[in-house]
Amino acid sequence: MANLEEILHQRLAPAFEKVAGAPVDPAIRRSQHAQFQSDAALSLGRRIGGKPRDIAARVVEAAQLGDLCSSVEISGPGFINLTFSDEVLARLLADTSADERFGLPQTKAPETITVDYSAPNAAKEMHVGHLRSTIIGDAAVRLLEWQGHTVIRQNHIGEWGTPFGMLVEHLLDIGESEAAHELSVGDLNGFYKAARVKFDADEQFKDRARKRVVMLQSGDATTLRLWKTLVDESKKYFMTVYGILGVCLTEDDFFGESYYNDQLESVVDELDELGLLRESGGAQCVFLEGYTNRDGDPLPVIVKKGDGGFGYGATDLATIRHRLRNLNATRLLYVVGLPQRQHLEMIYDVAREARWITPPARAEHVGFGSILGDDGKILRTRAGHSVKLVDLLEEAVVRASAVIAQKNPELDEKTHTDVARAVGIGAVKYADLSTDRMKDYVFDYERMLSFEGNTGPYLQYARARICSIFRRAGVEMPLPEVGTLAISEPAERALALELLAFSGVIAEVSGSLEFHKLANYLYGLAASFTRFYEKCPVLRAEGDVKHSRLTLCDITARTLKLGLELLGIEAPDRM
Ligand code: ARG
To answer: Which of 210, 402, 456, 554 yields a CA-CA distance of 20 to 30 A from 523?
Structure first.
């Protein structure tokens, strides 16, 4: 089922074309004055001459709208105001809600999409940037999978390169079992720092670390085994964090830097054959037009370093080639913080020059800003350390538990625990996803856990309240049959319009991956529902009216649940 804008578009486009003699976009928009408005006659007046009002009148006459609209008016200088009839709204909504997918068919053009996200660094604590990548990437995976695309999750963890020389040496110093213990309980920062301190202070250690990197990269068996211990323990730890967060990432999604190790030489060879490599200071580089460093000097992508080693750039060239060529992806998403924008754009440009990326394939940087503390700086602990993610999540759950205990002391213990988890984690995710991802935001427990305003708990509560209406009515949920709907009150009409907008929002967000638009939509929907519930009694209504209103409640609850689910947020039935 098309959304309302599309339905009007389909009716008005041919009429505009008839009047203009060429295709015209009717530019249908939601409007304050009517439900929808087209202002296309205004610019058309300038283009073909004539008064916009007259053009609008001719368009309206040529258009077939009688079976859809209860009112079609020309206003002001030549706007066309359109209002759907209540019967049409009721029928469209009944059709939509009879369908589990709310009239949103699986995509007709399924693609293979890779999503590079989360990507923490082994033997190092996950930081808040990884939290954002994990939450946003997870929402992208859920939405695109739900639309019927083949989504390949790629957790590009950092587990290769120079720090691992020092980390392996440190592991040997403290003993394998002690190291495994520290890492598995999540003392990754402690482990990393201890290694770093030795590296900086002790020349001998530094020397050992350097030699160890060489051994690692040349495939020395013992070194690889020790390295694998580090990486495996880190992976186990990351999995516990993903478990707490409730994201889709699994053990099978780790494709870290080392995965590309044996593809790096061939990346160099291929770029060389294409004549794209240039030597600079001993390193093999690709120089692209339009990239300069702070001093204005050309900034290269370093493919192979002077010492023969490979860095982050080479690995990312391998990721992009592999995803295009071996995974056959046509849409490549990299959910990575904004500081890495230039790095990624350069990788994409090299891939285009090498003709690895050719249409319809495209690579997109799904960038995001930082999470700030209330001092407006990158979030840190009071002592100035980087915040440990699990601590942050745990505190959210503890605080949610206190809020829930106060709101609903009657919940049994198990339900209380589950709800506190859903609300605490949901609040953190929602606070992230409801802000424009390109912007920074301030991490504020109190605000994100508030039951008022644009928050996760507010939306969860709005749905739980609908569940409680059904419990009180003694009616099962979701309603087994939709039946007919009757819309007559303004608050019912407003709610119906809001519900019918869902499919358009989903379509838009699956392109832009601007999840705040879905979040804001759900917030608007919950607010419409609240107004409806204030104005239109449900349980005290009777007969068909009661049934129709219960149906509106049901569709609202289902839309909220699906919307939250697509954002990766649970929706408890009671709270
Ligand atoms: N591990 C990197 C970091 O912590 C992020 C990797 C992002 N993905 C990529 N393909 N470069 O900054």
So the answer is: 402
